[in-house]
Design a protein that fits this description.
Elements (H helix, E strand, L loop, with lengths): L29 E4 L3 H8 L11 E2 L5 E3 L12 E4 L20 E3 L1 H15 L3 E9 L7 E7 L2 H10 L5 H5 L5 E6 L17 E5 L4 E5 L5 H17 L3 E9 L6 E5 L6 H5 L5 E4 L2 E5 L2 E4 L3 E5 L9 H5 L6 E3 L22 E5 L11 E2 L2 E8 L9 E4 L1 H10 L1 E4 L11 E4 L12 H15 L2 E6 L2 E2 L7 E2 L2 H12 L8 E4 L4 E4 L19 H22 L5 H4 L7
Helix pairs in contact: 1-3, 8-9
Length: 552
């Protein structure tokens, strides 16, 4: 058996004199404040820990944890408190058009917060103070209060670490209470969905998490709040990754839901990674929300994704990956527990990370989709109207594991390629992005990382090396001088050649043996686009509405 990376040693803990009684948390026996990775390792691998609280040392040096039945977000249990500030600014779910912004009463909020306070009282706790947002002028200072060591580890990796000087006078803008061990037993009388609750109060600037161990609820929760507050300050807020060239001059942003390749494609050894999930765009350029990366591990290999694979080491936190109890080796190909296996690590574990996470005005925008129908081109160029059409449409296939209950790909339309994390009306975000694309003459491409040669179950997933080659060509301007073919059904322009990509895969119809079957499938998907757009955006300007697919 290999020697493990970490050698146990005596750890001197930094304790904090933080008064938690102002949050209603009483009887705290001890606070471990902004623990180091050595401290976290000692805490989360204690032999006496049981169940989901226990972390396991692995052959690569990282710690592996399990999150129970919640191996992804629980969108049906996400709530925002209705009050004077939220009632007219939040894009609430409705019978006509459902989203994840469920309303909660102030009574429900008080009850759920009380449950969390009770769970966290009379305990030894971990408190992590961190920033969300690389732009010092607009970042949010967050205080995470948790009772589980690896949850403190998670947010330490995911958010931006303050300097020692910044910690001396740290005052949180937002407070997160993670009471994953508690349950909302009276959820029915509170008008909630289950014993689980992920609840936000925009006015008091607090989040409460009850009965889910999934770390991503803390990360995505704070992103949702940034996506609420930034537009109010006149800044575009985007669910996207971003990178730039080695000179920091040629910035690109990548939109796409989990599983479409957003993290993988932006983590490019030949470019500097700004961030892999959420960004703002102000007059100076883009800025990352977070201080870490949260990469999918399913089918991970050192060959295909060396940067991510090599980031799995001491300090990284792995979630729900099956490992051998004896050798402590990971089986990244095993998706029996969930397809949504993850690793969180500080962004500087990527050798070519851009620190701090800021970049210039994006020259290229890439929309990523995973088309399970197998009919969209592997890459196509979009004009301004088509760009806005596809941005608000956000077509992809929900891939297995990213949410509870999703076991195979399902076609979906996720507004703005990040609907679950957008608390405000889509038009707010679309208008802001559209204004910037027009102002800076930014080029926009739609990239299909999904299926080719047939639909899911018949065709095959687009090879990563081909997608990487097409993205590279988009970023370096190769597509500026090639022949294009207009696709009449999807109303996009397809480049006919690309370096290091077989020309026969550029046009999806050519990859199907049965051309009639392709035509039928393409029109079927185009009709779905049209129906979705008509339903969701009846008041969209005509020039944008007509820039989408044509089923007839």
């Amino acid at each position: 058996m290999k020697q493990y990376y970490y050698q146990r040693k005596e750890v001197n803990y930094k304790m904090a004199q933080i008064d938690l009684t102002k949050y209603g948390i009483t009887g705290t026996t001890e606070i471990v404040y902004n623990p180091s990775y050595e401290q976290l390792f000692e805490e989360e691998t204690k032999p006496e820990l049981e169940g989901y609280e226990k972390g396991r040392e692995t052959e690569l040096g990282a710690v592996n944890v399990m999150t129970g039945i919640y191996t992804g977000r629980s969108p049906k249990d996400k709530y925002i408190v209705v009050d004077e500030n939220s009632k007219d600014t939040v894009w609430w779910t409705s019978d006509e058009y459902k989203n994840d912004n469920h309303p909660a009463t102030q009574e429900a909020w008080a009850a759920v917060k009380e449950i969390a306070k009770k769970e966290l009282s009379n305990k030894r706790l971990f408190v992590v103070d961190a920033f969300c947002g690389a732009n010092k002028d607009t970042r949010m200072a967050i205080r995470f209060i948790v009772e589980v060591a690896w949850q403190a580890h998670f947010v330490t990796n995911m958010f931006i670490k303050p300097t020692a000087e910044e910690l001396e006078n740290f005052e949180p803008d937002f407070v997160v209470y993670n009471a994953s061990k508690a349950k909302v037993e009276n959820y029915k009388e509170l008008g909630l969905n289950s014993e689980t609750a992920v609840m936000f109060n925009i006015t008091s600037k607090e989040q409460v998490i009850v009965n889910t161990w999934y770390g991503g609820e803390m990360k995505k929760g704070m992103f949702s709040m940034m996506n609420y507050f930034l537009p109010l300050k006149g800044m575009a807020s985007m669910h996207c990754s971003a990178n730039t060239d080695m000179n920091g001059e040629n910035t690109a942003i990548f939109f796409g839901l989990s599983g479409t390749g957003k993290t993988t494609l932006s983590t490019d050894p030949k470019r500097l990674l700004i961030g892999d999930d959420e960004h703002g765009w102000d007059d100076n350029g883009v800025f990352n929300f977070e201080g870490g990366c949260y990469a999918k591990c399913i089918n991970l290999s050192a060959e295909n994704e060396p940067e991510i694979y090599n980031a799995i080491k001491f300090g990284s936190l792995v979630e729900n990956v099956i490992m051998d109890d004896e050798t402590r080796e990971f089986d990244f190909d095993d998706g029996s527990l969930t397809e949504n296996t993850r690793v969180g690590y500080p962004v500087d574990y990527i050798s070519n990370a851009q620190i701090p996470g800021v970049g210039g005005i994006p020259k290229v925008v890439i929309f990523l989709t995973a088309d399970a129908f197998g009919v969209l081109p592997p890459i196509s160029r979009l004009d301004e109207n088509a760009a806005m059409y596809h941005f608000v449409t956000g077509f992809t296939s929900k891939l297995a594991g990213t949410e509870r209950g999703i076991t195979e790909p399902q076609p979906t339309f996720s507004t703005l390629f990040g609907e679950p994390f957008m608390p405000m009306d889509p038009s707010v975000y679309a208008n802001m992005l559209g204004e910037r694309i027009e102002k800076y003459n930014t080029k926009v491409y739609l990239v299909n990382t999904g299926w080719t040669g047939g639909p899911y179950g018949v065709g095959s997933r687009m090879k990563l090396k081909y997608t990487r080659a097409m993205v590279t060509a988009a970023l370096n301007g190769t597509f500026d001088d090639v022949e294009y073919k207009h696709d009449e059904v999807f109303n996009v322009d397809i480049p006919q050649t690309c370096p290091n990509v077989p020309s026969e895969i550029m046009n999806p119809r050519d990859t199907w043996e049965d051309k009639a079957a392709y035509d039928a499938q393409a029109k079927k998907l185009a009709k779905m686009f049209q129906d979705n757009f008509t339903k969701k955006y009846p008041n969209m300007p005509k020039n944008i509405a007509e820039a989408g697919p044509k089923a007839d």
